[in-house]
Fold these 4 entries.
Entry 1:
Amino acid sequence: MFADWRGDHRHALELLDEELSYVRELAAPEETSVLLRTRATVLLHQGEPVEAREHFSQALTPAPTVGLADKVAGALRGLGDAARLAGDAGHARVRYESALEACAANWFGMGETVSILIGLGRSTATEGRLGEARDGARQAADLAVGSPGVREPAESAEALPVLADSPERATVPLGAAVGLRGDREGGHRHRTPRTPRLTG
């Protein structure tokens, strides 16, 4: 996880592969599902949505057997991310809606719900449905405020420019996201469009 955050995706994948070999040896379905989903997320960060989709599909298989709704929701949300990044906004929206239905309405599911709402907002914005995109961004931001971590508020700030009424105002939440993350690159390239591209 830390290697991925630093942008060292190759090392992150090496560590995940090592860990996957251990949990498969232990026949641990919950951990296997989590690691497959994490590996798929790293692949998305590398700009490989097709390979990531295969991993998210594999993660979805053992998820229901462990009885944890957030594992199912996380895999479905990942499939939505992969579809959106591959240019299929309609299919992504269907996956996000399924993920939202599967996500547990509790503290543990809050971070996943934020990520789903952000993805749903981005896919509806791509489809030109800006009213729905704004609603998703607002809901994600409202929910993220109660999060104990930094990731959810940062990701929701990255999604807020869709609410801005001018390019100048759109830069404010992007700057907040960079500050929350504590990095100078503006987050992962698949999640955070560069400010000029977003506001140009």
Entry 2:
Amino acid sequence: MSKLEADSKFKNSDLVISKYVYHLYSKIKRTFKSIDVILKSDIKNSYIETIPLLRIIVESYFHIAYINKNKSRMRLIASQYENLAKLELFNLGKYYHYWSLETDIHQDYLDVIKNHYAGKKEPNVPNKLKKVYLLAKEVGRYDFYVELYTLMSGFVHFSPNTRNLHGEQQDDTFTFNKYVYDEEADYSIRFHLIQSIILAIGCIENIFELDDYRVNILAPASEDWHVIRQMRLKAPQ
């Protein structure tokens, strides 16, 4: 990532959409560092605790892929994201408005209602930017969504079905903190982590037209990753 950041075409871009790509890139980088700390910790089965963070990276990748797909219409995409930011404040004001009908609330909340909600129309934002599964379909990665947002949602939100990964069940007795390592789950998480970052960087390279970076850095890294994937797929299970 340091070589990407050092590329003059990346760090000095005047593209109208660049501020959103920078934000998404920074989010991916910081989240990856957090995941790395967790995986290297002494927490047993630490890969489980990285799932919520992995979903942040995957969702950020979806947005970068969406921007890349529409790079020829950057002003339109920039306006969509500007409206998305306004919509988030509008929804916050809407929430505070209904809350204010039931109880006294702080003046700061009233200011949010006044500035972003009261008397204003809801900002127009495409549904694909408001719903992650639609965004995943839009960029052709619904497979990521199904596995990480559907199958693994129980790890992010409370689900009694995930308790066995935090303990051991024997007959009618459940013992917490007796972890059973799940190699496939660990591999799947690490696979999606690396795959998502490589795909996101590939989109960023295309958005900023980083030809030298693509040839000298991204292409060799992608080839190495392909070889590793193939070795893992051919390994006896």
Entry 3:
Amino acid sequence: MDSTALVIAARQGDRAAGERLAAQYLPLVYNVVGRALNGHPDVDDVVQETMLRALSGLPSLRDPSRFRSWLVAIAMNQVRTRWSGLGHRPAPLEATEDPADPAADFVDLTILRLELSGQRRETAEATRWLDDSERDVLSLWWLETTGDLTRSELAEALGLSPQHAAVRVQRVKNQLDIGRTVVRALASDPRCPALEDLLGDWDGTPTPLWRKRIARHVRGCASCSDGSAGLVPPEGLLSGLALVVPLYDSGQ
């Protein structure tokens, strides 16, 4: 049974169809929410709330063939609501005295599950340097590059026209590339002495402000800028990557 038929059956009260529909789209929602919330502990709650709202709201969906774009739009609304409720970004992983659980951070989870290395790994790590609104766009654009969303679905989820969405995506791609140069500069060994001096009062939390400061240094430093040469366009790195599938047992 295809997705549209599942939606119609679930809307008519077929519980099994609803369960199959949820299972089919859970990885998509998990990836959208996980990346948008940067692996915040509330990811599971937001995913669950998204799925519950979607399944309970099926009678209001006029066109069953638009279920996926409608579902992603619900997910993004839940993400924005959660960020608004939190009122702040999550603390850095380094802030806890306990060893970090890789499953608690979506970037680490992506790297581990997809066995990323080289520039793909750097690109995943660079997403930590985006702000919340940029990460919202990235979470959708990443899935567009992998073929799991269309541009029209991306635009609808953001509540924008395709033309405006294209502008937002390009801005985020530019900021992601800047983040990649930051990641590479910080990972250099030995690290540039001038960069070490700049980072003297940095607490280790990736923020847009520190992204700007480090990127400004990289642009003006021959050593750091040389190390940032040869970046592959992110589309080529992200396309073909599978979704990160949540490890839920069948009882959940």
Entry 4:
Amino acid sequence: MARLLLTSEDNAKTVPLTGTLFWDVVGSARVDLFEVQAGTAASILGGAGKDLFRLLGNQTDYSVYQASSNVVFTHQSTGETVTIKSLSATGDEIAFVDTAPISLKITGGALMLGEQLLTPTPSPITTSTDTADSNFSLDGKGTAVVPVEIDASESAFVFTDLVSTSNNVSLLNFTADDEIIIFGATASDYDDGVIGTNEAGDIAITYNQAGILNQITLLGAVTDTSLVFDVTSFNALPIGNLVFG
């Protein structure tokens, strides 16, 4: 058995769990990213952040069941299991090779995988995978002076932004079911002159990482007189949150 304890220094790093060892993992207080090789056994306590677990097989390669507040994914051809422990109402996300991230959380006392109610009986994963475009990286999109326009109305998007790669994007129809995850910076980095609004209700998020410019504009996101100037005021709006991995 291999034990692994993550810290804040693992921020924005993908943690690979591979081989024939049984992995016993405790996540950090931030957003953790795990990749579990198909057929590798693991027990993962994700920690305080909204974590992303990638199981490196197709959705149909696994069955799933509830064990108390934990969820267990069984790899069908090997019988090895991946247990994700102590889920909450905030929840985490699970993804397979052939799917976008699917929410995994406790809702109204029920443990839910997307829209699928989990029970103590192992079952096939039936949650719809018709969201293949919902996990969208903003890295490298646009140029320093010409933004790329992206319409978020067709799905619940998880936009990711690694600040060591420049971008310039304009997001249309960014609503409560969407989210932006920033990797390589902290919320406090975004609290000093990075976020602002204009009279048209656009929100500009402009972060300079050692000369690498990250530009995200949410077009028409403010429909009232709300003043947006930091992460807290942004996340107080009735739209998706800005979170940090």
